[in-house]
Amino acid sequence: MKALSLLNVLDVRQGDGTYVTSLEPALLLEALTFILDLHQDESVVELFQVRAVLDSAACGLAAQWATEEQLAELAELLDSLGPDPTVEELVANDLEFHRLIARAGGNAVLASLLDSLAHRTARARIWRGVTQEQAVERTMAEHRGLLDALVAHDVEAARARAAVHVGGVVEWARKAL
Length: 177
Known about the structure:
Blueprint: H1 2-6, E1 10-13, E2 17-20, H2 25-40, H3 43-65, H4 68-79, H5 87-104, H6 108-131, H7 135-151, H8 155-176
Antiparallel strand pairs: 1-2
Helix pairs in contact: 3-5, 3-6, 3-7, 3-8, 4-5, 4-7, 5-6, 5-7, 7-8
């Protein structure tokens, strides 16, 4: 039910019931195609592998070049999430968090590449949040650790934390296949 709700097939209204949002074949096929793609196509794993390399580089650059204002913006973004976010809120925050880090690194080409990959992996991130135990809590903790490395301007720690963070998603995607 949660997965179909996140894929916009169902509308779950607390205290009211669950409703099908649309019986249009395109919407239903999109949801089904996504699930089948995730389970049959290794390209999502490859996208996350590339993202791991690029994100690690972007985090290293951000640790080196991020301004106090940019670091404060990242902290404010994480604080805005609250202690118990929904998967949708977490993924939206995650996308923005990584976008801001890439921008803080000062390399527009790298930021653009990461932005392109982020949009191509957004649905997989949602699916992970629904299917992997403790994914929300783990992501929040990893983001905090990454921010700590950026604030300390510790290039190697930032790279390593980014690699571990995205590496966990690669591992999940492999198992999901």
